[in-house]
Structure formats: structure tokens, C-alpha cells
Amino acid sequence: MLSKRIIPCLDVRDGKTTKGIKFKGNIDIGDPVEMGRFYYEQGADEIVFYDITASSERRPIMLDVVRRVAETIFIPFSVGGGIRTLEDMREVLLAGAEKVSVNSAAVLHPEIIGQGAQAFGNQCVVLGMDVKKVGVSQKIPSGYEIVINGGRTPMGIDALWWAKEAERLGAGEICLNSIDADGMKTGYEIELTRLISTGVRIPVIASGGAGEPQHLVDVLSQGRADAALIASMVHYGAYTIKEIKDFLSANGVGVRRSW
Amino acid sequence: MIAILDYKAGNLTSVRRALDYLGFPCRITNSREEIRKADKVVFPGVGAAGKSMESLKELGLDKLLGELFAEKVPILGICVGLQVLFDLSEENQTRCLGLLSGQVVRFPQKLCSGKGDFLKIPHMGWNEVVFSKDHPVFRDIPAGSEFYFVHSYYPQPEREDISIGTTEYGITFTSAVAFQNLVAVQFHPEKSGNPGLRLLDNFCRWSGVS
């Protein structure tokens, strides 16, 4: 049976991970290529590199990171952050990423989803969605609204409608981030995840809120997510990927246990 | 030298990187002369069967693959590279290479797990391949190993004995086939960590006799 995927996410700025990681044994690594390799060896099912480089002149540094990652890890990895054009997508995929995720650009110019799917295949195009809980209204019937600019700009678009629309346009997967839960470590937004994951036919990666292994059990079972994104809970050595997977497995969630 | 067939079928560089990492000289190429000189051929693929067949024909690689198969050159098909080896693909009703008898069909619309959960299409992610026979290309791959899949179509070989690996996703389907000097897998060994690298390493050392 298909395993649920556990996906560490690394934020990269100017070619370095922003927080670095501290592991039991006190190793501190700030190089995204080494961190990628580390998580690959630790049993990550996939890795997400999120580029938060502000200036476009420094973009080529990220492409170099992508190339070096591709030479050292042999599992799928995706790259997101600042992808605006078909050319941006092409560069990242040619550098060796398996998938590329678009977020704000797709909200502003939805045609990029279809163009990307046409040019590179649906499986390459991940739609990143930042979502905020609002009241149910005529405009936002699901009660969840799409926001951009890291949650600062509400777009007046219903999250469930947008997920279905992106699927129709050709997105191969959705990475669903709850702005409310993000960074809180109190668990994923289960209700939202279930709503989106059962509303579309493509896989949904839950993101935002993971603090302990039980949170992953919840989102992968009740929340019906196909995969779960994790960050600080592994970056600072609180848990290893293996510990998380052992816990998931003991709680009836099927995961890949040998690698 | 190992030739990685270039027929505009998506990201070929990941296969090349994996072979580089394993230390086998390889080349991404669509040159008939170069492919003819190769010891082995990897036939990757991402995308649609129809478009793949079109590109293969345009480049004259459809006939070449048939010739290489007859000449006992070891060939490894990956994903769509497996699918187009069969007679026919349901995807746009594509007439394929016909090196293997059988057809390629889509997962049923209503696909459910044993627990009754609605399953998503494409089948994307890590899943187990149960190997039913010994084969040099699958040697030393631990039982229970999982591989990375991304696909909506799967093969139905006419001869059951060419199916040497199966996977469960709502139904049990053939995920690995072997016939004479031909081996093909529905998953992506180049993206499947150690078991995938082991498979590629085995293939690169394989004489073509099973």
C-alpha cells in the first residue's frame, strides 16, 4: 500500500539554510546540500527547499544549490519560493529538482499552472496554498481564504474553490499551508486539510503546525493528508525522522521504514 | 558506455546523475550511431505515451529499439519507458512498440483501499514492490523495499510469466517485468534511494541473460 510521505522543509536564503540545524550530538549544519543529504540518509521521503532569497540577482545561487543537491540525493525534491514564470520553473527543473511549487504567482496569474503542466508534466507542478480561517460568507463559502505575501494579503478567494480550480488547470499536487497554525507547534489544521484533501483527486501535503509526532498521526489519518511537511521538530533535534516514522507506524499510519 | 535515450521525455538528467554517482560512464543521446555503440540502453520516460511514441518515431528510435532488443542488448525501461514497450496504451489509444504483448490501462476511476478510503490518481509516492522471481537486476534488494512511483496507467502483460514484481494500490498490478534482455519498471529507480541505486547498479553490470 502507498506510504504516507514525511517531508522535511528547508528555508534557504542566499544559498544557506536560514536556521541551520542542531542535532543531538551538537552538530550544527547550515549548508542546504549537506542538510539535504543528512535527511536523505535519515529516511526523508522527499525534501522541500524553499528559497527566501529577496533579491533576484542572487537567484543563481539557489540554482547552484539545486544542482549540488541533485548530485547527492536520490529521492524526489521540490523547490519553491519566488517562482513567477515558466522560465523560473524550467531553470529549477533543469537544475535537477523533481517538482517546482508556485504560490503567489499562481494566484495572480493562474495560467502558469497550465503552462507548467503542459511543458513539464502535471507531476512537476505543485500548487502552494497559504490559507487563513475566516468566517463563512457568500464569497468564502468554505470559511477558508487564500492569502499571499506570507499571509499579509487576503485575496478574497475561497480555498476549496482554488484547490479544485488548480487541479482543473493541471496542478499535480497541493502543498497546503495553514497560516493560523504555522509556527505554533500545536498541530496541523485538521479540518482544513480534510476539506481540501477530500475535495480534490490530487495528493495533498499538509503544512504548518507540526510540533510532535501525534500531530502527524492526526493529519495523516483524520486530516486525510497524503504527506506531511515538517521543519523545526526535526531541525533542532527534538525528533529524528526515524522516531517520527516509528511512532506513525505504531499508530497505524503506513510509512516507508527501510531505506 | 550506457546510452540514456533522449526523446524529449521529461527529466533525463536524474537518471544520468544516478549513473554518474554509481560510476558508470553514460550519455544522454538520440544519435543512432552513438546508441548502437552503447553496451546497454536505459529507456526512461515521463509524460504521455502518445507524445512519447510520436517523438520516438520522429527520431527513428522506435525501430532502433526493436533492433537492439533482437540483438540482445540489455535494455532498462523506466515508467513511460516501460509502458510503450507493450502493444497498446489506453492513454490516447496509442499503438506502442509491441516488444511485449499486452496493454497499458488506466487505474479505475473508483479506486478504494482495503479500509474503504478513496484513493488518489496519480498513484504518487513510495510503495512496495513484491518480487516473485529471482532476477540479476533485482539481486540484493531487501524484501519489503519501497520505490517511488508517479503514474496513472499500469501494464497488463499478456504472459503472466514476464511479470516479476507486483504492487498494491487498490488493485494488485505489475510494477516490474523481465523478458530476455529486457527489464522494465513502472517506478523510478533513480528517485528511490538505496534500493533504486542497487537496481541501477545491477542493471549496469548485467550481461542481459537472466
If you had to describe this structure to a student in words, what would you say it looks like?
The complex is a heterodimer of chains A (259) and B (210). With 259 residues, chain A is an alpha/beta fold. Chain A has a domain at 5-126 and 185-191 and 206-250: TIM Barrel, CATH 3.20.20. In chain A, 36% of the residues lie in helices and 24% in strands. Chain A has helices spanning 32-42, 59-72, 86-94, 104-108, 111-120, 159-169, 190-199, 213-221, 232-235, 241-250; strands at 5-13, 16-17, 21-22, 28-29, 47-51, 77-80, 99-102, 125-133, 144-148, 153-158, 173-178, 204-207, 227-230. In chain A, the strands form 2 sheets. An 8-stranded parallel beta barrel of chain A has the order 1-5-6-7-8-11-12-13, surrounded by 7 helices. Chain A has a two-stranded antiparallel ribbon with strand order 3-4. In chain A, strand 5 (47-51), helix 2 (59-72) and strand 6 (77-80) form a beta-alpha-beta unit. In chain A, helix 1 packs parallel to helix 2 and helix 8 (213-221) packs across helix 10. Chain B is α/β, with parallel strands linked by helices. Chain B is 26% helix and 30% strand. In chain B, strands 2-1-3-4-14-13-12-9 form an 8-stranded mixed β-sheet. A 4-stranded mixed β-sheet of chain B has the order 6-5-7-11, with helices on one face. In chain B, strand 13 (171-179) and strand 14 (182-185) form a beta hairpin.
List keywords for this structure.
heterodimer; A: 259 residues; alpha/beta; TIM Barrel; eight-stranded parallel β-barrel; two-stranded antiparallel ribbon; 10 helices; 13 strands; 36% helix; B: 210 residues; Rossmann fold; eight-stranded mixed sheet; four-stranded mixed sheet; 14 strands
